[in-house]
């Protein structure tokens, strides 16, 4: 973007925010919350039992029916940047860059596991026989943010394919030539039916922090505060139910 374009973007953002504040002010005068909310969610999180977006949206829309909610699916690389650029009012996803202008509220940790398909040579190898060397001799697929840090060989030059979302990685893993790291909740159904195998979960699984992400300068926005409150309530209920 040219310097002129950046200036236009900044000024346009200010105008939209002023319009939002105006709508919210008018709504407050009538005792209701009025305006728009754009929510960004990281891709393929719907199978995660620690996150219930449907309940969050239902409760929020029941309480604040005059708020228009737009939901967008985002890659982890774009999620934080979109909140920073104010294209998203709120993001729910992996904390990766830890940008100083953003606020992160931890929701839970997502377990990531190394897996292969039934067409991969390691599929029929017993876990007890599997060695570190076996993993380093395989091709890897990377979506940039889920690479296991404890296997340096998963980096270049062993990583021979790159993707930008989970489903694309899964297609390559299903093909049988690559290993990859994916959320355990996402692949569990294929593990159960015998088409995928988790490799040495006891040693090589790791966790990524899922967070509620907001812009520090917008933390007092009434709609964002109200939505954040609903998220915290739903997550607290999930945590209590899981513990019991």
Total helices: the number is 8
Q: Mean of residue pLDDT?
A: 85
Low-pLDDT segments, ≥5 res: none
The total count of strands amounts to 9
Question: So what's the CATH class of the largest domain?
Answer: Alpha Beta
What is the CATH topology classification name of the largest domain?
A: D-Maltodextrin-Binding Protein, domain 2
**Largest sheet data:** 9 strands, mixed
Strand content: 25-35%
Please identify which CATH superfamily of the largest domain we are dealing with.
Periplasmic binding protein-like II
Percent helix, as a range, is 40-55%
**Element pattern in H and E:** HEHEHEEHEEHEHEHEH
Q: Mind telling me which CATH architecture of the largest domain this is?
A: 3-Layer(aba) Sandwich
Ends distance = 52 Å
Question: In oligomeric terms, what are we looking at?
Answer: single chain
Silhouette:
globular
Q: Taking Cα atoms only, what radius of gyration do you get, to the nearest Å?
A: 21 Å
Total domains? 2
Structural class comes to alpha/beta
Defining key terms:
single chain; alpha/beta; D-Maltodextrin-Binding Protein, domain 2; 9 strands; globular
Describe this structure as you would to a colleague.
The protein has 244 residues and is an alpha/beta fold. It has two domains: 142 residues, Periplasmic binding protein-like II (D-Maltodextrin-Binding Protein, domain 2); 98 residues, D-Maltodextrin-Binding Protein, domain 2 (3-Layer(aba) Sandwich). 40% of the residues lie in helices and 26% in strands. The protein has eight helices and nine strands. Strands 1, 2, 3, 4, 5, 6, 7, 8 and 9 form a nine-stranded mixed beta sheet that branches. The chain is globular and about 60 Å long.
């Amino acid at each position: 973007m040219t310097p002129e374009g950046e200036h236009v973007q900044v000024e346009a953002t200010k105008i939209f925010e002023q319009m939002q504040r105006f709508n919210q002010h008018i709504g407050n005068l009538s005792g209701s919350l009025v305006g728009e909310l754009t929510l960004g969610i990281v891709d393929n999180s719907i199978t995660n039992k620690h996150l219930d977006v449907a309940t969050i949206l239902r409760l929020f829309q029941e309480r604040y029916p005059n708020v228009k909610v737009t939901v967008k699916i985002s890659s982890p690389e774009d999620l934080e940047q979109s909140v920073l650029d104010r294209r998203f009012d709120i993001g729910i996803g992996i904390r990766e860059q830890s940008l100083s202008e953003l606020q992160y509220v931890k929701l839970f940790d997502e377990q990531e596991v190394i897996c292969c398909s039934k067409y991969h040579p390691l599929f029929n190898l017993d876990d007890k026989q599997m060695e570190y060397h076996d993993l380093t001799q395989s091709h890897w697929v990377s979506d940039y943010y889920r690479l296991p840090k404890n296997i340096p060989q998963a980096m270049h030059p062993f990583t021979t394919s790159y993707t930008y979302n989970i489903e694309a990685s899964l297609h390559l893993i299903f093909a049988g030539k690559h290993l990859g790291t994916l959320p355990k909740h996402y692949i569990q159904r294929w593990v159960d039916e015998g088409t995928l195998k988790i490799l040495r979960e006891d040693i090589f699984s790791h966790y990524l922090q899922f967070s509620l992400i907001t812009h520090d300068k917008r933390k007092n926005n009434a709609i964002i505060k109200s939505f954040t409150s609903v998220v915290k309530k739903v997550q607290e209920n999930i945590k209590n139910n899981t513990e019991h």
